[in-house]
Design a protein that fits this description.
16 strands, alpha/beta, 4-stranded mixed beta sheet, about 475 residues, 7-stranded parallel beta sheet
Length: about 475
Amino acid sequence: MLTELLSWSVAERVHERSLEILSEVGFCVPEPVALDRLEGAGFPVDRATQMVRLTPELLDSALDRLPHDVSLYHRSGREEAGFSAGPRFMGAGTPVNVLDLETGSRRPATRQDVRDLVRLQDALPQVDIVRPTVTATDCGEYSDLVEIAELLRGTGKPVVHRTLAPERIDAAVEMLAAVAGGEDAFRARPNFATLYCPISPGYFTPENVRCMLRWAEHGVPITLLSMAMGGASAPATLLGELVVINADILAWIAALQMLYPGLPLLYGSVSAVLDMRTGLLPLGAPERGMVNAGAAVMARYYGLRSMCGGLSSDAKELDAQAGFEKATTAFPLLLAGADIIYGVGATDAGSSISYTQMVLDDELIAGLRRLMEGIAVHDLDEEVALIKERTPRGNFLGAKHTRRVFRQHWLPSILSRDSYETWRAKGQTVEQVCQGKARDLLTNHNPPPLPSAVEAELERIVRRYAGAEFHFGP
């Protein structure tokens, strides 16, 4: 049962077995400088295999240093993302394909798509944290810097992204500092977090290790984001997969805290289970929501904020399958108390981003948030008096009480509640309504611009890498 997977006793069992693996087998660190530093911090290191073991004493020391909250701010630095108010929803990312807004056909994503999708997320009220969502395939190897620049220009909300090479991190931090008013100001009120994924079980690429260490030097919040595949890179049972997820993340919680005490970390999982019929990874499977709900519980066990993949679908277009899978993968995360739910706009098992799906996901999130409010418990004197007055067969439609409180009920802006005749007369599908709303928002929504001097500084930094011809344009 899902409730059993989410229990504290199961979390303790997963922790114990993860530590058993890490203390007896360890995790691979294929990067000589990192090995030197970890050995110097007291980790047992086997140079021949590049394996690092974690002792219970080292783990206790690391967990003592671990900050038990992460604050992400809006670009202005005045407002937090507000995790205590419930789960925050974040755009998916970053496939190389997009479903064209006008034609609906799949094509390579461009820098213009990055810009438009960032602006669309800024406009959608239920999207709390913004990602580029797609890769700017027309920007070459420096697309990551271009994408960070477009994030900083196109939204005032908190943002999440990564760089693909450690040598570009200093440039990214320069941009973050330029927007925040200096690196000290950014450290104090960060509007950006990064994320890196292990190759389960027990391995990060050398480039990702170097990237994490470089971001850590700047104090940037890091999400350790498992992409375990049940039945492929992890055991086929959900509990066994959760042990792999936890061991991979726990290893680097310990490593980063011992090397950079107090570094803000997030516990992340976008894991799923393999479909043995096709050999593909179905992100719309109910097991995805279940195992990532388990990851959210493990995050709470360690006192960390969580970032978990849900709101996912394998559907190729905006249809009934997409609605079913998005809800099925999101709801377990709500029950588990996930802090960030990752997946807005994703379709086709995360291989494409859809403008129209992003708009409908915003509507779905609003409905899910209303659902999670539950039934408000309050004094019933007024309602009971009204019921007595109108029993039997009374009508409450004209009551002052009804007029005062009915706006608590959720009203959709996309989904139709019209009569059949009215709906037929309008002649629009849900996808067409979403398409129209996306067009309208992209035409009329303009995020607050950066000061011209800051924008010029971002352009200068990106040009250093992407070439002198780079410019932001209108």
